[in-house]
Amino acid sequence: MKATAQAPSNIAFIKYWGRKDNELRLPANHSLSVNLEGLSTVTTVEFSGDLAEDGVEINSQVATGKQQSRVVKLIDRVRQMAGVQTKAKVTSYNTFPKGAGLASSASGFAALALASTAALELDLSEKELSQLARLGSGSACRSIPDGFVEWQTAETHEDSFAHSLHPANHWKIVDVIALVDQTEKTISSSEGHEAALKSPFYQTRIQHYLPNQYTRIKDALANRDFTTFGLAMEEEAINFHAIIMTSDPSILYWNAATMTVLHAVRQLRTQGLEAYFTIDAGPNVHIFVEEHNVEALVATLGQIPGIQEILVAPPAQGARLITEQAA
Ligand code: PMV
Predict the structure, then answer these.
(1) Fewest CB atoms within 10 A around its CB: which of 5, 217, 221, 251?
(2) What is the per-residue pLDDT across 217-262, written as a single tens digit (0 to 9) for each?
(3) Does ligand 1 lie within 6 Å of residue 32's CB atom?
């Protein structure tokens, strides 16, 4: 009654921001993402009749409060599916550099969904695993399928899941992540999803901006058209942060170094190095380049004050079971 799973983090080109249903985590818009190699969570779940209560350990620390209850809530659902009441021990660690300031909820809940269902021999389909991971953290549903992934909005739990558009080896583009702040963010994404609905520009994003932008990026991914992809992804990031800044309450995720990196990326383009940025709900900058430009980009970023660390993440496959155990 024990299994271990590894799942990647993902970065969205069209972000999920704002929900139709908070409890079921049904997104207000479709999103597109890629899984990131080297940034993953490894989780072991063991159900045992010897346990008096559930235990959760993340990165060698006992989880408490909200962090613990979110994990137990998903395990409760899995127990319900399997018709058992056995308690579980969950042990999990991230392969991200320590304190990278990158969201681990996507990789974390994807790994938890796979490991816990496998431990109880539930043998779910990819679609069912994606639905389940979504209940833990919306973006986690996109860390189940391989490579480049799409998650469409829907009205019900059964209809809201992600699927792969292209495998990881479809396109050799690379996410070079400039870490400018490695602390955990103070405003949770749940608060952000709520606050976004009150931005005066939110409905414009959902109804008028995203439909075209979505098709533009999806087509550029299919055609491996880097320029169209990059420009559209960068525009979306600005649009997304405009919503964040004008939401109620207003949220400012960027710091001074974030802005410095954004200018540097645009400057690089004028010098012939084709690089484009996107930014998640945080200050760190994800810069996409084609594989042959990774080295030049990393060398340039190394000169910019305020960048604490640089990570290089090619596209990755989705969640999978592994034999190694999360110690
Ligand atoms: O999965 P959540 O509820 O933590 O939402 C995070 C959503 C973003 O990372 C901000 C965007 C996205 O689509 O990944």
Answers:
(1) 251
(2) 999 999 999 999 999 999 999 999 999 999 999 999 999 999 999 9
(3) no
